[in-house]
Amino acid sequence: MTDVLNQTLQTIFAENSAFYAERGFERRVGYGRKPALVVIDMANGWTRPGSPFSCGGMDTVIPANQALIAAFRAKGLPVVFTTTAYDVTAGEDTDMGLWARKVPLEAMKTGSWEAAIDDELAPRGGEFVILKKRASAFHGTNLSSMLKAMGVDTVVLTGVTASACVRHSTEDAIAEGFRPIVVREAVGDRIAGAIAWNLFDIDAKFGDVEPLDAALAYVARLG
Amino acid sequence: MTDVLNQTLQTIFAENSAFYAERGFERRVGYGRKPALVVIDMANGWTRPGSPFSCGGMDTVIPANQALIAAFRAKGLPVVFTTTAYDVTAGEDTDMGLWARKVPLEAMKTGSWEAAIDDELAPRGGEFVILKKRASAFHGTNLSSMLKAMGVDTVVLTGVTASACVRHSTEDAIAEGFRPIVVREAVGDRIAGAIAWNLFDIDAKFGDVEPLDAALAYVARLG
Amino acid sequence: MTDVLNQTLQTIFAENSAFYAERGFERRVGYGRKPALVVIDMANGWTRPGSPFSCGGMDTVIPANQALIAAFRAKGLPVVFTTTAYDVTAGEDTDMGLWARKVPLEAMKTGSWEAAIDDELAPRGGEFVILKKRASAFHGTNLSSMLKAMGVDTVVLTGVTASACVRHSTEDAIAEGFRPIVVREAVGDRIAGAIAWNLFDIDAKFGDVEPLDAALAYVARLG
Amino acid sequence: MTDVLNQTLQTIFAENSAFYAERGFERRVGYGRKPALVVIDMANGWTRPGSPFSCGGMDTVIPANQALIAAFRAKGLPVVFTTTAYDVTAGEDTDMGLWARKVPLEAMKTGSWEAAIDDELAPRGGEFVILKKRASAFHGTNLSSMLKAMGVDTVVLTGVTASACVRHSTEDAIAEGFRPIVVREAVGDRIAGAIAWNLFDIDAKFGDVEPLDAALAYVARLG
Asked: Smallest Cβ distance to A175: which of D145, D153, D178?
């Protein structure tokens, strides 16, 4: 089925892109002067088997994230990790708001192995780990104002999942006034077609979807 | 192509839903006690031909919105319309932020015919029209705090487009603590597959996608 | 000096209140149906001597907070504590944004004794502790959307300081659509006149400043 | 009374500043590289007699604002005006949320003379006028993300009133990651002591309160 799906999607994306080009969508937001890397939810509950949130494709997604993290570190540029987990549930009340009514957040507890960033991508001292409670890395967090205070104008987004946290974060990134760059090889999901479709929508309207090589070359060029 | 696409999507959605069911996604957020109707961007630039933003399917989308608006009015429940347009451009600076670098916002000017709500859905006195500058009806607007002050707990979302403003608004609605209900027949877009895919993602993770009949029956039941 | 100051302030507040009454300010927002208690920054760095942030008057402020916490617990109503501390500094970059350029935030480190809630007010399981990075308990946190999801319509605010975190939180509370009630005896500060002046401004424009007895009687009345 | 008040306040501010200096408050956030001017609520309802919101001191506040606006225009820097007014009231529901329960917002209607920016400060084409619904110029508006998209790092704040809209906007400005500069001569209010006290608190904790000359000299220095 996946082959048929991918073939169908490629055909339809080509048609849709032709239509968008005529209408003036799919423009390039472009790279800015000071990027931050925002690695979305590359915690064990997503990167490793055995959790309701476990994703596929980590054999390529993790190395792509490692390459980007190394590039940002080499230039002394900000690296931010997010994870998603609850601290409190009290009857129906929880700090996750209503989101636990849609997705199995009861599997993600603050302080658990599932909520910890994958060892292969371990944050270093001076790097930021944001515990978020919603899909977007910006919603209900200090991410936007922290990046603003640092003079960051570009947000390079990676991680999981394309159909939820990466997408909502990208939509919020451009809404907040940052140039979103989503790195194709560094993004994952868990259902067929989700990466392809969501990156297509993102590239048309919210941020530039770029290959890993281009993102690495951009960081390498920075002073 | 559309038939092949739809057939392929239906097959893949069935597979994905089976997977999600096993994992605990696609839960029901459910209807609450006090809903507001939020009609996204049903302005002429989207509902009528001749604009870069023109959408298809208005023969069904407009009547579905009319039915919902009538139902909310009959119960004295809040109705909110949004439109998206710029007020100012000064060189590279605009009140649309960076979004004009991705989509043709130069076609939508505040006060223009394009930016006005379609006459077939004309707002009445006492209804709210929000001029937004971003995809989400919540981002950079007073929508969330206004609804909160009214005691609203449920947001029924309709309008265009599924792949941008409706989706981002729905993601923000649940993030803000409202129960999002997206009415299938009342949502439009302009490219093949966009409605189907985005409603699938929304229903899995952000809000309940409901048929028009169910949404109308819900409003009819309210005191 | 304090006597002269207080006398002068009382005189001027009486004149200002008469003026406001004529103009239509100093209205009552009133108590709602479901309150949450939000205890601002009653952590050791504020409640105990020896920190740049140490406040006075804890002999009355702590018991007033204890009484309110007990009342909310007795009714099973939500209790939220905040503290303010940094996680990361990397050169000039910090998760506190620019705020460390105005106030001595370097004294408040996440995980330190200073940042921990005072033992006399220790949070219990099922209560919420928000680590904030700004003055307002709402800014860059999930507080508003969490309370919305719980159906809370009233926020009872206490803690320190009147001239910064309590005031900004109260301004944001009404902006977000909650009824703010600030409990006079439960609020502290560290400089002369700051409590009196800020509670006057708050009561005129942002929330109702109420005596402890009235707030306790309100909670006692709830079902 | 005003003389006694001012004398008392000056004495107490001197004492409080000495205390703050020892504790590490009242630091300088400093001027950044690209400022925007944000003129708060200099609309007729505040600047002219006859409204519940009418302020005093306009003989000095208006010229100070004119000087700043001219300076920003001369350098092609962004100028933003705000006004506050309601669009809709429907029974108890209004787009002003709960704020009308504290202050006489029924006097400020969108499109009225009261809500229009004072002719002596008339906005030009290419300048931004934000219709806000809350005290803060940032809350529920696109101001922060618009300024971020423009690369602005410093917000020069003026207008009315010191005890509400200017103060809340300044608190939000630093929370959002901008350097707030509040220009003493360009800020007004309507009650005795309100300007002095609020500028003292602001300067201690949220932004730099600067004389007009210094702010003009800063803008003159910019390339």
From this structure: D145
